[in-house]
């Protein structure tokens, strides 16, 4: 059931991203919604589930993005795995930590894409300034769902206590 | 073996995922054989959805662009409407100037002819308003004592006699019109030189008094100034006989319709010094 929900969420993200790319110039939509979803899933799920979700998210992103299929899947797999593993070792719950995590994940994503592309002799990767803008935008935007989920979780725990 | 797999399931799944993904990427690297079956299948599955999204997105954008264009058209329409109003005003203003110029030209021509034929001196003046008299027909002109205007000076226009100055201020003067009940001047029938006194009646028509029953006069006869009172030179048109009826014996009652339409007057001439005139003055001087 949860897997279906995640898949539906990924499809919704794909549609939203595609529509945004059609309607807005790239500089006005620097967000990577697939990456945000991967990080948010990694904050709650196991490393295995996070990396599988990352792989699925990356595949959908590649399929809709029209690029090399598997490239973003590789980077998102790595991000899902690393963030989920980090969460188990370090506390990443607070908004500042989450923002930092997303910013670093964005940089890692760009780095992995660049590295894989370079390994296959493909001209991939973005300018550092573009990556910085994307990281900042992702870090700010992730607060919205994160705060919502946190509030929802607190309410649930309060209901359980009662 | 099974225990090993269960213990390291995360690492193994990660490794498997990475290997599969790297294989997929490697399979797409150009090697001169075109796309792999996997990539082809993925694109075949995804492309209808992409087409749908693109269709909706493009439609939305075109709708939005159309709306923005429509707003632009609306603004342009408003701008053109304002421009049209402005041009209409400008056109009206130019027409007014042309009409004024025509009236001034006509007056200037009349002034030249009048002065040279009657030997009178005239001053152009503008009608700046109706008089403030409680009753009677009066006009206010933009000339006064500073321009040399005095009471009892005649006022004329190209179509005939207008009236006479009755009150003068430094920069304005009040003109009593022919039709004012207090107005009176010496006049004559142009055709047969019969003299009478023209009086205003407060109505559109004046009355020519003291014409005997035996004096030959008929409707349509032109009435002109006699030049006797020295306000107007002789022979200036006053109006036309509109009615001839028996009056108190031995006189007739003669109605005269002024030749000038007073309500449309804008420019007039103040007769500063009346000359002998075309006919009557010389004749009267000889009487």
Percent strand of chain B equals 25-35%
Shape of chain A: globular
What class do helices, strands and sheet pairing of chain A give? mainly alpha
The helix/strand order of chain A is HHHHHHH
Largest sheet of chain B: 6 strands, antiparallel, barrel
Layout: helices, strands, pairs:
The complex is a heterodimer of chains A (162) and B (287).
Chain A: H1 2-23, H2 33-42, H3 47-65, H4 71-89, H5 95-119, H6 128-141, H7 143-161
Chain B: H1 2-7, H2 9-28, H3 37-118, E1 121-130, E2 138-141, E3 154-157, E4 160-168, E5 173-177, E6 184-189, E7 195-199, E8 206-212, E9 222-225, E10 237-246, E11 251-258, E12 267-273, H4 280-286
Antiparallel strand pairs in B: 1-2, 1-12, 2-5, 3-4, 3-12, 4-5, 6-7, 6-9, 7-8, 8-11, 9-10, 10-11
3D architecture notes:
The complex is a heterodimer of chains A (162) and B (287). With 162 residues, chain A is mainly alpha-helical. Chain A has one domain. Helix content of chain A is 79%, strand content 0%. In chain A, helix 1 packs parallel to helix 3, helix 2 packs parallel to helix 4 and helix 5 runs antiparallel to helix 6. The longest helix of chain A has 25 residues. Chain A is globular and about 60 Å long. The relative contact order of chain A is 0.12. Chain B has a six-stranded antiparallel β-barrel. Chain B has a six-stranded antiparallel beta barrel with strand order 6-7-8-11-10-9. With 287 residues, chain B is an alpha+beta fold. The C terminus of chain B is likely disordered. Chain B has a domain of 157 residues: Rod shape-determining protein MreC, domain 1 (Thrombin, subunit H, Beta Barrel). At the A-B interface, helix 1, helix 3 and helix 4 of A face helix 2 and helix 3 of B.
